[in-house]
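Work Package 3 (structural annotation) set out to generate three-dimensional models for the target panel prioritized at the project kickoff. During this period the team completed the workflow that converts sequence records into C-alpha cells, so that structures can be stored uniformly alongside our sequence database. As a representative example, we reproduce one entry of 371 residues exactly as it appears in the project archive.
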Amino acid sequence: MRAPDSEQLLIENLPDEPVGTALCTTRARGQLAGLIAARWPDSRVVCHTLDAYHAQETVAVQGSYGGRLETVCIPDFPLSPADSRNGESTGVVDSAGEGFDLAALPTTAGGESELTRELLREAHNRLRIGGRLLISVDNVSDSWTHDRMRELFPKVTVVTDENPTGGKPRGVVYGGTKDAPLRKQKEYDCEFAFRDRGTLLKAVSRPGVFSHRRIDPGGRSLIEAMAPADGDRVLDLGCGSGVVSLAAAARGEGITVHGVDSNPRAVECTLRGAALNDLSDRVTASLTADALPPAELRGTFDLAVGNPPYFSHQRIAGLFLAAADAALKPGGVVLMVTKQPSWFLESMGERFADVSSEEVRRYHVVRGRKR
C-alpha cells in the first residue's frame, strides 16, 4: 500500500546518513517507520499513533523488525525507545547523548492545528541536542507549518515537492536541528465546566480528543436523553473527554460507568475528569480498537450510549452497535445520537427490539432494547 502524500514525502526526503533512533507518526499503516527500520538495520524506531485501530494495522503490516520497530498507542511521545510505554507531555531531553536522532511527522492541511502545535513541541522535546525534526504537509502553498517550525528552530530548511511522476506537487517538507531545549513549554490541555440537571461538573480535554475544549452538541443531546437508574452499569462508547460518563455517574446512587475509546488521550481525559469530580470509584475507562469493553464486563451493562463520528461511512457506528449488543444484559437499552437517524433505525432493528427515535436539540437519539 502506498503511503499518503505527506508520509511519502518524508520517505523521499529522509537523511542520507544512518539514523540510530527515530520517532515518527503515521497517517496510514506505518510505512515511514517500516522503511526507516528496513533501510538502517542498526536503527531503533518508535511509531506513535493516537488511534488503537491504526496501531493494530501498523503492527500487522510492518511487524517489529526483530524488536527494532515498536508501534505505540499512548497519550504522548515516549522520551526514548527504551521508554516507549511511558510518554509524558512535558518530558524534555537536554543533552546530546539521550533522546531521538530523528523525529518525522507527516501532517495534513486539514488537520487539527492545536494538535500539530503540541506534537511539534513534544517532538522537539524528545530530540537529543543535534537531533533533526522533519515535518511534511500535503499543501504546496503552506505557510502555517513553516511559521510553527520557525518558532522552534533558528534555521528551517524547506523542500517543496517536485513530483517525480510529473503530477501535481504533493506538498512541502520542513526540517530543523535542535541546538537547545525550548525556553518555554506551552500546555495545550484544558479543563472546562458544564452542568447537568443542576450539577456542576468539570471535564478535561486535550488536542486530538473529540470536541476539544467544549461539550459537543450531540453529546449534550445524549446526556439529556439518557436516564440511568440508581445502581445501573453504563457503557460510554467513544467516551472522548468523558462528559457523558461523568454526567451518567453523577445522576444517581451507585451508578458506575465504563468508557471505551480508540484514542489513548480520550481514556486519559476521562480518568482525569473522574478524579476532578471525585468519581474515580465510579468511572473507569479502557483503550480499544473495536469499541468492546473488557471481556469480563461484557453482558453486564444496563445502558450503552454512543455518539459515533460521521467520517467513517458508518463503519465506527457499526462497531458501536456490535459492542453495545455484546455489552448489554438482556433488556438493556442502547442510545445512539445522530443527525441522520435512518441508517440507525434500520441497522438497530436487526439487533435490538423496540427501536425508536426522538428529537433532542436538533439531533435524533435512536433507542433500542436488547432482546
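The CA atoms of residues 56 and 348 lie 27 Å apart.
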